[in-house]
Amino acid sequence: MTYDNLLVDYSPGLAIVTINRPKALNALNQQTLIELESAFCSLAEAPDVQVVIITGSGEKAFVAGADIAAMQPLNALEARQFAKLGHQVMHKIEGCPKPVIAAVNGFALGGGCELALGCDIRIASENARFGQPEVNLGVIPGFGGTQRLARLVGKGRAMELIMTGTMIDADEAYRIGLANRVVAAEQLLETAKKLAETIISKGPYAVKLAKQAVHNGLELDLDRANQYEAELFGLCFATKDQKEGMQAFLDKRPAQFEGE
Ligand code: DAK
Predict the structure, then answer these.
(1) Where are the domains of the chain?
(2) Which residues, listed in sequence order, are joined to residue 6 by a DSSP beta bridge?
(3) Using one digit for the tens of pLDDT, what is the confidence trace for 89-130?
(4) If you write DSSP's letter for every residue of 134-156 in order, what string do you get?
(5) What is the dihedral of CA 30, 153, 231, 49, to 10 degrees?
(6) What is the structure's pLDDT at 39?
(7) Helix H or strand E segment including 17
(8) Which atom in ligand 1 lies closest to the alpha carbon of residue 134?
(9) Which DSSP state fits 5?
């Protein structure tokens, strides 16, 4: 499948989705959001894809936000529709049965920061900048930023970022837990790919259930979350990968996982 505003490249086990509107610093307009949703519908089902990386085209921006030019004339109903579409996309990415890594290669602002927040892991290049600058434009984050940022970095830090619209650099993003690591720009994609390779070498079914357990469990109280974890743990024992993984350990050999 080809897209106007996305590039999708494949290598064994991996898909790299590049948001490709460099003239607008990869800002998310309606079409890009629709394409992202469609790409993730396909990637979720693709048997040969185990991990997805999202990045931005060019050296300057991951995604500089929702497209301001496209949003400016919207009325309230249209704005609500646009926000709903953005929510759908972030939800799709977050709920993707495969791990999604954001390789943040520059500005990740507004909808761009929210896109990174929808991913499971964020690797930032040294020139990355994060922020929720919506208040500068007279609006609030509309693609889940008020919720996901607070859940990831804590209420106080999220409040400060959202109420001041201040941009932070990659080191500060790392310090507050918004970025998992910071690497030189030229090493960003390699680092993300190595991380993907590590995940790809594990039992795919277990990785999928681990993502599900963390993601869904966090929305439950601890007792229910632990109960949920126990159910998923039990489910692992219905897979060939569990038998193989444990037998391989006992045989002192590398496991050959089949994802079944
Ligand atoms: N949208 C559209 N175009 C953008 C853009 C954006 N978010 N960001 C940059 N561009 C365009 C610029 O207009 C410029 O286009 P030309 O003038 O060349 O045609 C080109 O990209 C290069 O940008 P600059 O010339 O500005 O580049 P600089 O290096 O000088 O500055 C910058 C880079 C990232 C600091 C600056 O471009 C900037 O401040 N951009 C805006 C960042 C921003 O405010 N992002 C948040 C967007 S608001 C909601 C739904 C969604 C949302 C909210 C509510 N509901 C429906 C309720 C989400 C909101 C957002 O994400």
Answers:
(1) 6-200, 204-251
(2) 19
(3) 999 999 999 999 999 999 999 999 999 999 999 999 999 999
(4) GGGGT----SSHHHHHHHHH-HH
(5) 40
(6) 98
(7) strand 13-19
(8) 48
(9) S
The CA–CA distances, whole Å, from 221 to 135, 155, 216 equal 33, 18, 11
Residues framing ligand 1 (Cβ under 6 A): 24-25, 27, 64-69, 79, 82-83, 86, 107, 109-111, 133-134, 137, 139, 141-143
The answer to whether residues 30 and 88 touch, using CB atoms and an 8 Å cutoff, is no
Q: Does CATH number 1.10.12.10 belong to domain 204-251?
A: yes
Residue whose CA lies nearest to ligand 1 atom number 17? 24
201: CA distance to ligand 1 center in Å? 38
Q: How far is CA 186 from the centre of its chain?
A: 21
pLDDT digits (tens, 9 = 90+) for 139-174: 999 999 999 999 999 999 999 999 999 999 999 999
Sheet of strand 13-19, all strands in order from the earlier edge strand to the far edge: 6-11, 13-19, 49-56, 100-104, 121-125, 181-183
Contact between residue 108 and residue 101 where contact means Cβ atoms under 8 Å apart: no
Q: How far apart are CA 24 and CA 109, in angstroms?
A: 13
Q: Point out the residues that are catalytic.
A: 114, 134
State the architecture of 6-200 in CATH terms: Alpha-Beta Complex (3.90)
